[in-house]
TrEMBL record:
This is (S)-2-hydroxy-acid oxidase. PANTHER family: 2-HYDROXYACID OXIDASE 2, S -2-HYDROXY-ACID OXIDASE-RELATED. It comes from Carassius auratus (Goldfish). FMN binds at residues 92-94, 121, 143, 171, 243, 265, 298-302, 321-322. GO terms for cellular component: peroxisomal matrix. The lineage of its organism: Eukaryota, Metazoa, Chordata, Craniata, Vertebrata. The gene is hao2. The keyword Flavoprotein applies.
Length: 372
């Protein structure tokens, strides 16, 4: 995990050791174009929620147990009945080819190698077919938006079902895209050689209309409601996971509508600014759901210690968004693997230092609630 990077002194190269995820962040910041970096980094409005997603973990204190023989630690867990190597997967993020030429294919191979779950974004710069072919044995879910033209949504659902994707992750926090100031300033656009590959050729007749993040503006359907969840269930036998729930009320509705999972998410702070950090929303949702469906979360996970806290507060698995892209920017597949490996090692160490021998032993007793 060593790279050469220019030091402050002119012409001198120093070896940089990648120790933690912020080292990859720094690398990405230095090596990506400004518009691409700004796009990945963006939060909505004042970025309060984006930043709070990270800060909130730092406010939580742990209550470790001692003398519990932690010579062997088992980090494995399962999602929807499938075993994964540790409770961290890859959240859906758009446009991986902006960070690395092989894009989502590299991400898919890395997650296959590490044996965890990859949620492929609708806004991928490789098609769902290319992603599946790159990592034929990988465990994958597909993230879905609903479009005004339901035929588009229907077609992609049929494709991913046939390709062996194991669940549909319906993102529900984007009736409209949040206001990301730097993207507006930069007039962010995909370069001409890249496109939202899943919809290649499907928008040809609309090329004259205004574009938003690679597809014609106003393609997303802001009228989406719970009845569309029922529609999706009528269309596909795949488990449905709702991504973007932040309250117990909506968690209850999700369970009532028969979904199989919930991802507590505020879209990495890119949608409604001023909502709480996801780790602060998690307990009320876990309490409301009472084990009837699996609860996952994303937002601000940067260390194995963060993973431990989220699992202690009831997350079955957490997902990383931006860090995967930093890994890609660093070294493609290898970079994403390193990100996952570092998180895995840190998680294992935090488990051991807090006296947890396996994931089932991680529970709320680990959290010092009097400080929250
Ligand atoms: C650059 C970028 C692109 C994203 N694209 C999508 C997307 O296409 N679909 C989606 O459901 N969420 C998308 N998200 C949100 C992520 O799935 C996830 O909720 C968020 O990144 C988690 O926060 P983190 O980046 O702090 O880990 C995106 C996030 C980022 C940073």
């Amino acid at each position: 995990m060593n790279i050469l990077s220019s030091s402050g002194e002119e012409g001198v190269c120093v070896e940089m050791t990648m120790v933690c995820l912020s080292d990859f962040e720094e690398y990405a910041k230095q090596h990506l174009s400004k518009a691409t970096w700004d796009y990945y980094e963006a939060g909505a409005d004042d970025c309060c929620t984006r930043d709070d997603n990270l800060q909130a973990y730092k406010r939580i204190r742990l209550r470790p147990r001692i003398l519990r023989d932690v010579s062997l630690n088992d980090t494995r867990t399962s999602v929807l009945g499938t075993e994964i190597s540790f409770p961290v997967g890859i959240a859906p993020t758009a446009f991986h080819c902006l960070a690395w030429h092989e894009g989502e294919q590299a991400t898919a191979r890395a997650t296959e190698a590490v044996n965890t779950c990859y949620i492929a974004s609708t806004y991928s710069t490789c098609s769902v077919e290319e992603i599946a072919a790159a990592a034929p044995n990988g465990y994958r879910w597909f993230q879905l938006y609903l479009y005004r033209d339901r035929k588009l949504s229907e077609q992609i659902v049929r494709r991913v079902e046939a390709l062996g994707y194991k669940a549909l992750v319906l993102t529900v926090d984007v009736p409209y895209t949040g206001k990301r100031r730097n993207d507006i300033r930069n007039q962010f656009k995909l370069p001409p050689h890249l496109m939202v590959k899943n919809f290649e050729g499907m928008f040809q007749e609309q090329t004259s209309t205004q574009e938003e993040y690679g597809i014609p503006a106003n393609t997303l359907d802001p009228s989406i409601s719970w009845k569309d969840v029922c529609w999706l269930q009528s269309l596909s036998r795949l488990p449905i996971i709702i991504k973007g729930i932040l309250t117990k009320e909506d968690a209850e509705l999700a369970v009532e509508h028969g979904v199989q999972g919930i991802i507590v998410s505020n879209h990495g702070g890119r949608q409604l600014d001023g909502v709480p950090a996801t780790i602060d929303c998690l307990p009320e949702i876990v309490d409301a759901v009472q084990g009837r469906v699996e609860v996952y979360m994303d937002g601000g996970i940067r260390t194995g210690n963060d993973v431990l806290k989220a699992v202690a507060l009831g997350a079955k698995c957490v997902f990383i968004g931006r860090p995967a892209v930093w890994g890609l920017a660093y070294k493609g597949e290898e970079g994403v693997r390193e990100i996952l490996q570092i998180l895995h090692d840190e998680f294992r160490l935090s488990m051991a230092l807090s006296g947890c021998r396996n994931v089932a032993e991680i529970n709320r007793n680990l959290i010092q609630f009097s400080r929250l």
